[in-house]
Amino acid sequence: MNTPSLSRREFLKTGTAALATASLGIPLGLRAAAAPGHGGNKLPFGIQLWTVRGAFMVEPEATLNKLASLGLKGVEFYTAFPGGRDAKAMRAMLDRAGLKAVGYHIGGLHTMSDDAVKREIETNQIIGNTRLGVSFTQVGDGPFNSAAKTTTAKRQDWEAIADKFSALAAKLKSHGMATYYHCHVADFARIDGETCWDIFFARASQDVFMQIDLGHMGTAGIDQIATMKKFPGRAKTVHVKPANGGDGRLVGDPNDGNLAKWPSLFAACEDPKIGGTEWYILEYDGGSMEQVEGTVARLKEWGKI
User: Fold this and answer.
1) What distance in Å separates the CA atoms of residue 70 and residue 305, rounded to the nearest whole number?
2) Residues 240, 94, 104, CA angle at the centre, nearest 5°?
3) Who is most buried in 12, 111, 171, 243, counting CB within 10 A?
4) pTM above 0.70, yes or no
5) What pLDDT, in 10s, does the model give residues 91-134?
6) What's the per-residue H, E or C state across 135-165?
7) Is 1 exposed, middle or buried (0-12, 13-18, 19+ CB in 10 A)?
8) What is the pLDDT of residue 3?
9) Paired sense of beta strands 178-182 and 190-191, if any
């Protein structure tokens, strides 16, 4: 394969990026493609705090300050505030760190009573968040299994859940808020040849938006861009992680199942007629601050942060 020649300026730019990457602990042999082609810094990046939950639960303010120092602009909560802290204390920490609350997972909608929803609205008004997400929901028999490739649910079960989401979206809209559903591999099990995800979003109100997880969708073998095109403008927040992950790999590593797709994935998200994305959100299941630092270094190399 022929290697295109570089101008002196391009060579120096690439060399400088390589040295910066090496200094952050990413081996040069694992360095992903340089910034051109990844679309530049068009959208802010936040992080799902589940990624660093160990540190966050012990030292919440120090953790938030560290995330802000890396160049991240917002955080998505996974419901719990550490150490019994209330929403006012958490808002003060966010303000001191210069971070925005850009999402909040309220758990499973099947567990949410009207009183519970009311409490979540009040909490999120305090922390300044307008997006209340559902991270999973019980559909069919048995406990929720995020990695399941088959389902016992029927089409009407998913349609009934979609109707509940639509009702929640209508309630939240009067408070200037919106709801969203976050995907796992299990949401792409098929019923009569159609994924549960497609059944759900074809039924749900347009006010219910998708939180596409680019890692989970890639692991499930789903074309992320084709899915966005089916429901244009509804991928308001997007989780950024490797496909076929879970073993410590980073976004952009050679064994990241999304490696070749990242330029086109970013372009689709940033197109208002396709994804309509407003925030990228980093997430690693069982993650660590070291993973976050390595990923941010790579995203800076790509020009995304």
Assistant:
1) 9
2) 50
3) 243
4) yes
5) 999 999 999 999 999 877 766 678 888 999 999 999 999 999 99
6) CECCCCCCCCCCCCCCCCCCHHHHHHHHHHH
7) exposed
8) 33
9) unpaired
